[in-house]
Amino acid sequence: MKTSLSACATGIEWNPFKISRTGGMHGTGEIGQKMGLVSGFVLQSAMTGEDILQVCVNLPSTKVIAVHMDSWNH
């Protein structure tokens, strides 16, 4: 399996994916401050239901949260 590493300050587009970096906190108060900086990442792609199923089948340890697949009404 070929791997690649790229820095992502705010976001990056890679193949059909848009990856956005988000901020976050490990905790609150003094303990949260001592734990330091944290980043989260949001992966966006125009994938079909079949594409998402294939991700789940081929990468079973991946956590997939599919939202608003076919609807923009709410």
Write up what this structure looks like.
With 74 residues, this protein is an alpha+beta fold. It has a domain at 36-68. The chain has 2 helices and 3 strands, in the order ββαβα. Strands 1-2-3 form a 3-stranded antiparallel β-sheet. The radius of gyration is 16 Å and the shape is elongated.
What structural category characterises the helix and strand content? alpha+beta
Low confidence ranges: none
The total beta strand count reads: 3
Report the sheet with the most strands, covering strand number, pairing sense and barrel closure.
3 strands, antiparallel
List the total number of helices: 2
* Radius of gyration, in angstroms, nearest whole number: 16 Å
Strand order of the largest sheet: 1-2-3
Q: What is the H-and-E element order?
A: EEHEH
Shape: elongated
Topology:
Blueprint: E1 11-14, E2 17-25, H1 29-35, E3 37-45, H2 49-58
Antiparallel strand pairs: 1-2, 2-3
Q: What's this model, at a glance?
A:
It is built from 2 helices and 3 strands, in the order E-E-H-E-H. The protein is α+β, with helices and mostly antiparallel strands. The model has no long low-confidence stretch (mean pLDDT 82).
